[in-house]
Amino acid sequence: MAPLIKIRDLYFNRGDKVIFSGVDIDIYQGKVTAIMGPSGTGKTTLLKLIGGQLKPDRGTVEVDGQNVHKLSHSKLYELRKRMGMLFQSGALLTDLNVFENVAFPLREHSRLPESMIRDLVLMKLQAVGLRNARDMMPAELSGGMARRVALARAVTLDPMMIMYDEPFTGQDPISMGTLVNLIRRINDAMGLTSIIVSHDVAETTKIADEIYLLSGGKVIEKGDPDTLKTSGSEWVKQFLQGLPDGPVPFHYPGNDFKNDLLNSKETQ
Amino acid sequence: MIELLRSLGRWGQNTFQRLGRGHLFLVQMLAGIPSSVFRFSLVIQQLFYVGVLSILIILISGLFVGMVLGLQGYNTLVDFGAEESLGVLVSLSLVRELGPVVSALLFAGRAGSALTAEIGLMKSTEQLSGMEMMAVDPMRRIIAPRFLAGLISMPLLAAIFSAVGIFGAFLVGHGLLGVDDGAFWSQMQAKTDWYEDILNGVIKSIVFGFVVTWIALFEGYDASPTSEGVGRATTRTVVHSAFAILGLDFVLTALMFGDV
Predict the structure, then answer these.
(1) Per the structure, how many domains does chain B have?
(2) How far is A201 from chain B (nearest CA, A)?
(3) What percent of chain A has pLDDT over 70?
(4) Which of A35, B79, B122, B159 is most buried by a 10 A CB count?
């Protein structure tokens, strides 16, 4: 089976900082694929590259057989209609209420009658359990609720895939559990392809079919959660078990501590 | 020395990059205008925020500027026994200069800064990014309607400013200082030319509306997505708009009334 998203030989720099140097990733249809790695490894950047919001320095990103960065403006926008994305902050439109936020993509891209828009929006809100919160404004929602509204909005156009940017960060245990279930349920019920970018090991390994571990601009390891748990790599062990020191040092690299203390000239 | 040259070079590079981005932004914004003409409800909504909400400050400022003009003008003219020409003095200075310039400065402070802050915050809360990923072009959906609204509001606000200003001068001139009202209005009508004065004033206000709204929207769109970044962008909008208005006013006045 050909992958839905095929990333080949991806290079991307931000200023002098290397974010990706030769990354290959395949994401298959119907699967929940997680991209994991420590903060600052460019996980969000990867989603922006897939969505065509950033251009790579080298390499290709193909979504459904189309090279994202070779598409014209209108073709890219057509493709994006079939991509959903859940931002870390939710990115809800603050001047619209919950209902209008979920209705937004429908109003922009379709000429459906008002009654049908209402039904569709209520169905999506029902799926995330917030049908009765439809008149609330984004400022009145808790972080978990905002993310669920954003999830309802991301699936309004029935996309073929959905990208989650750190969906579990800053959630209380109840909303965390709700979100984890929702992501898996929505993926399977709608036949979606999901990409989760996260560094929450416990939650992600619960629902992912395949995990890519990124560090230092490269894919360190890939495989299903069980394979990774038994991996012999020190790095993978450190990351999955959350050990403070190991191949990824606890201290930001730089001067030696002893030298720093003895060398007090800098501070004077 | 080398360090100084280096920072000078960096400053120059940044300035030109920003200029380039600003003009690219203008092109994209203009390309988005046709679609907002077809969805005029978005423009009308913005006309309310940008135009209608600026009316109060324009009315009050216009009234006081006109009253001061009436007072000062009278004091000067009365020495020459020409106080009946107060109407001409007031109307020409308002319609040609003060109306477009002062209302544009007020517009930059009231509506321009609000636009920058709004767009800047939308950027920093990823709303613009979110729209792009929903296949909605923010240039068409957010920027272009606001630009059109600014372009339409500005000449109307300048006209209101001038009209209220003339009324304020009349209140002071006729009501307080006893200038003959017939002379006030008839001389004004005789000496204020439709094309030479009023139309040129309107052209000025359209140009100012164009530039101020462009600066405000670009600053918001280009702001670094932090609270400090949005704050700085808002300040820059007001400062750059003021420079642009006053500089362009000189150029336009020289072209329109210069006879050089």
Answers:
(1) 1
(2) 26
(3) 98
(4) A35
